Amino acid sequence: MIASLVFLSSGLFLGWSLGANDASNVFGSAVGSRMLRFSTAAVLCSLFVILGAVTAGGAASAGLGELGAVNAIAGSFTTALAAGVTMTWMTRGGLPASTSQAVVGAVVGWNWFSGSITDLSQLSRIAFAWVASPLIAALLAAGLHRLLLAAIRRGRPHLLSLDANLRLGLILAGVFGSYSLGANNIGNVMGVFVNASPFAELTIAGGLHLSGEQQLFLLGAIAIAAGVATYSRRVMLTVGDSLMALSPVAALAVVLANALVLFVFSSPQLSALVVSLGLPPIPLIPVSSSQAVIGAVLGIGLLQGGRGVRQIRWGVLGRIASGWITTPLIAALVAFVLLFVVQNVFGQQVFRPVAYQLSPPALVRLAEKRLPTERLAMDVEPVVGSVRFRDWLRRQVRLEPAQEALVLRIAEIRPVTIDAAGLEALERTSLPAPYRQAVAALEGLSFLHPWQLAEALASRSPLWALAPDATEAEAGRRDARLALVLDTFGVSPPSPGATTTPSPREAI
Amino acid sequence: MSSPLLFGKTHFLEAQIDEFLDKVSEGGIYFQRGIELLLDRGVVPETELKLDQLIQLKERANELRRAVVNTLYSEMLIPDFRGDVLRLLSHLYGLLDATKNVFQELLIEYAAAFEGLDTGADVRELVAVVDQSMQAAVRGARAFFRQPEAVRDHINHIRVYESEADAITLRLKKGLFGSDLPLESKLLARDALAVIDGLADRAEEISDELSILAIKRVLE
């Protein structure tokens, strides 16, 4: 456990840094303008960041996971460390850097080092979100500012009533912003650890169920809260209104716009609603709250015409735009170098090699999915690394990106044999007994592909089956349990030069 | 910091500010009524009662001003404007205080200033205009709190009344020094007119203050 915490330390540092810097985006205006005491702001911010991270942090984190699933904890540590180092360097150099961009760059660096595929479509969705988030924030802030002013002009509140309402508005917007910050940015802090989580499922008194991912997010959110408590006051009081002087009404519009942007990019429900309206889904990924705030301030500045435009520091904006490119590039390079050092100097496994093989059952499965298997040759030996396998695949047939992803998913091999020793080891894990019984029923069987094991388990017990209308959280829990079984029974993946593979037996 | 408490305090404070402004406004009315009594009946108990009323108004206004400012600072309310509110209330209190002092001086030092003068109607006109300038200053201050866009109109009214007060004072002085009154009476009456006119000047100073505050307060 101590070793796990040591490996998590780089993520916790990222969390602390996020809390210290980004809390000012949600409560900076209220505290900086002395409308709210720092202690009140810190308690509210910490509480709602934790709530947002634990209850709604999965979606944005999964979005980052689609870019690259860092699958060894030393790799996760190094990736988060690379992001942290990049952030520190760039901040010291006076360059505006966002943790989101540093983390994405570091994940790409891990993909590069481990030979994993960087999903370019996901990368382009992420880049779209980086550019879109300040623009959306600008539009929202301008609209909200107009609405608030119209309401004030109509209601003609007394200066003191207006102040009290703005104060309450800033508190509520700050609370919403903190929740959204936790839900969206926990992916930056703990996203790279999800696939190598050292935590098992936990049910605590009162029947409260916490998955391994949620425990990770809780820990990350506590690190964010520590950042808020220890260092954010200074940032709130000094950085608060550095881009442009803001009136309290404008500050409220900015905080609300920022909170909405963070919410938009982390809410699966909203994305589903958008899809139901016939629009493309919203990419659910961590975005930069600092850049959303800058976009929002810009939106209000532009709304004020020439005077507002003159107040905007365009140089800052130019540097931010350049940061969209330089930050991920630098982070990717730093990650590559650090991964090399950690692997070769400290002897740590920074990635678990993933092997692929077009075995006969995989080909049958692909044929069922109506893929042109007649043009695919059967692999005689596994190919280690998704990039190598994809190159091999492309030499045979050109497929659509979605089809290619499906082939990769079906061809992935993780040989397991359900044996007595493994079952004994499984007893010591947190896997509930009914699930273990279904695994025990498969004793003596071997599986080559993870999906074969999943299907065999589903056929043994409805607990392992995934309903067609299962939520993402349910699917995530099922996958986490399956990963636990695979880790417990799994044998080392075949090396690139291996000539034989375990002969899979269909369990069904 | 629960919101009902916050809003309860806010409404209480608003009521205190409104009461303060009422007192300043009442001060103008009592001043005008007092001068009328002075011109009609000289220094009689009814005239002195007006001075007592002005003194009580001033004391209550002072209490209110201190209470409002203390609450604004201790409760960290309107951080952007509390300095402005403090200055505005201080100026208005200064106007009320000056009104009381002027009336007191008129009763003690200048009681005989307008005796023998045939200009009672003009003096009444001057005092009415001075009162109007004070009322416009109070309306401007109320607008600052509730409708900053309207402050400009009240500022303009204050300036017009101040010019009118100057014009009436000039006319009165010309008539005064063209009369056959002894020089000491002329000088006494001149000084009495100057202190009355000075109140309109103080109201104009508030208009200058209000014009700056309104610019800050107008929403953009």
Protein described:
- The complex is a heterodimer of chains A (508) and B (220).
- With 508 residues, chain A is mostly helical.
- Chain A folds into three domains: 2-344, no CATH class; 355-413; 416-489.
- Chain A has 20 helices and seven strands.
- In chain A, the strands form three sheets. A three-stranded antiparallel beta sheet of chain A has the order 4-3-5. A two-stranded antiparallel ribbon of chain A has the order 1-2. Chain A has a two-stranded antiparallel sheet with strand order 6-7.
- Chain B contains six helices and no strands.
- Chain B has one domain (3-217): Phosphate transport system protein phou homolog 2, domain 2 (Methane Monooxygenase Hydroxylase, Chain G, domain 1).
Set down the secondary structure blueprint.
The complex is a heterodimer of chains A (508) and B (220).
Chain A lengths: L1 H31 L5 H19 L1 H8 L7 H20 L6 H16 L5 H36 L3 H32 L11 E3 L3 E3 L1 H28 L8 H17 L3 H9 L12 H15 L2 H6 L2 H31 L10 E2 L3 H9 L14 E2 L1 H11 L4 H11 E2 L2 E2 L2 H8 L5 H8 L5 E2 L2 H11 L11 H18 L19
Antiparallel strand pairs in A: 1-2, 3-4, 3-5, 6-7
Chain B lengths: L2 H39 L3 H30 L7 H27 L11 H27 L4 H27 L5 H35 L3
Helix pairs in contact in B: 1-2, 1-3, 1-4, 2-3, 3-6, 4-5, 4-6, 5-6
Strand content of chain B: under 5%
Q: Look up the CATH topology of chain B.
A: Methane Monooxygenase Hydroxylase, Chain G, domain 1
**If classified by CATH, what would the architecture of chain B be?**
Up-down Bundle
The separation of the N and C termini of chain B measures 29 Å
Which whole number gives the mean pLDDT of chain B? Answer: 89
User: At the first level of CATH, what is the class of chain B?
Assistant: Mainly Alpha
Main sheet: strand order of chain A:
4-3-5
Query: Helix count of chain A?
Result: 20
Please tag this protein with its features.
heterodimer, A: 508 residues, mainly alpha, 3 domains, three-stranded antiparallel β-sheet, two-stranded antiparallel ribbon, 20 helices, 68% helix, elongated, B: 220 residues, 0% strand
